[in-house]
Structure of Amino acid ABC transporter substrate-binding protein:
Amino acid sequence: SHALAAAARALTLLSQCDSFYLGGVVAEAASSRNVDKMLSSKNPTIQRLLGVTGEMGTSLGLSDDFMVDVIKQVGNYEEVYNRHLGPGGINIPRGPNKLWNEGGLLYPMAFR
């Protein structure tokens, strides 16, 4: 599908700085269930991530809202973790793989 191709291309283009990973972590506020609602968020980081503001996608040869498609089809970091490593997978507690404000070690930089 178009979104998965965009995700693969973004992953390839961004692998040097792990921005795709950061996008998934920053996106924990936006999930596959609420991403459409989050398009009206006033949070500037969420606006950039979802392509409401800025031209992140354009600079990568993608649509600016490419992360909306990625989040809808793949999920955010929490959803991916839970599906493969957490309760839906091999059931490893998330522990240090939580966001810093939830007691974990993940502290994502702003998605720019």
Observations:
- Confidence is low (pLDDT under 50) at residues 13-20.
- The radius of gyration is 14 Å.
- The first helix runs from residue 2 to 14.
- Residues 11 and 20 are 6 Å apart (CA to CA).
